[in-house]
Amino acid sequence: MSRYRGPRLRLCRRLGDLPGLTRKVSKKQAPPGEHGDKNKKPSEYAVRLEEKQKLRFNYGLNEKQLLRYIKAAKKVQGSTGYILLQLLEMRLDNTIFRLGMAPTIPAARQLVNHGHVCVNGQIVSISSYQCKPGDIITVKQQQSSRQLVEKYLMFPGLANIPSHLELDSSNLVGKVNGIIEREWVALQLNELLIVEYYSRK
């Protein structure tokens, strides 16, 4: 699976705050590139593309995966943009990040891929696994796994745990109690522009 290996702060300067991608903060405020600080009004397409790129890089998806999530969201009754955000927020790697068990989504993905995480007592090594209400997320009983997550818990990526999750930090157990509400999505974006972007392709 491909993952973004390029400069993360450069992306944050272009797209705004991406809490899932990195915890670092750039000292520079202007967008990257030679012409970064010129105030040119972006086109409608550029605005929609930027919103889509925010989503892609924050959750660590490639274009094919995001297209698959869009198609799945369109099949469900309700607001496509909101359902898309729910699908992405309920991924296992993002759930671990939101519980504070990892500082960023790439770090959470690595925990999952290396087999440190169990869902309902079973080791799950697929980071795109869709968590459901009632799922219990635990850390493998191995000493190295527990030490790694305990170190991460001292400095969580986000200050607050969303209302649909609960964490027992002493036993390293997280529980999914429901589906995330829109106001708890940490990323600042307009999901309707993303749906528009794909509807015009």
From TrEMBL:
Chief site of localization: plastid
Positions of the RNA-binding S4 domain: 90-153
Localization per Swiss-Prot or TrEMBL: Plastid, Chloroplast
Keyword Plastid in annotation: yes
Record's compositionally biased regions (Basic and acidic residues): 34-44
UniProt GO BP: ribosomal small subunit biogenesis; translation
Annotated InterPro entries: Ribosomal_uS4, Ribosomal_uS4_bac-type, Ribosomal_uS4_CS, Ribosomal_uS4_N, S4_RNA-bd, S4_RNA-bd_sf
Renumbered residue ranges of the record's region Disordered: 20-44
GO molecular function: rRNA binding; structural constituent of ribosome
Gene3D superfamilies, sorted: Ribosomal Protein S4 Delta 41, Chain A, domain 1 (1.10.1050.10), RNA-binding S4 domain (3.10.290.10)
Domain Small ribosomal subunit protein uS4 N-terminal: 3-89
Record keywords: Chloroplast, Plastid, Ribonucleoprotein, Ribosomal protein, RNA-binding, rRNA-binding
A Gene Ontology term for the protein's cellular component: chloroplast
One Pfam family named in its UniProt record: S4
Quaternary structure annotation from Swiss-Prot or TrEMBL: Part of the 30S ribosomal subunit. Contacts protein S5. The interaction surface between S4 and S5 is involved in control of translational fidelity.
Function: One of the primary rRNA binding proteins, it binds directly to 16S rRNA where it nucleates assembly of the body of the 30S subunit. With S5 and S12 plays an important role in translational accuracy.
Similarity comment text for this entry: Belongs to the universal ribosomal protein uS4 family.
Protein name as catalogued: Small ribosomal subunit protein uS4c
Organism of this sequence: Helminthocladia australis
Lineage: Eukaryota, Rhodophyta, Florideophyceae, Nemaliophycidae, Nemaliales
Gene, per the UniProt record: rps4
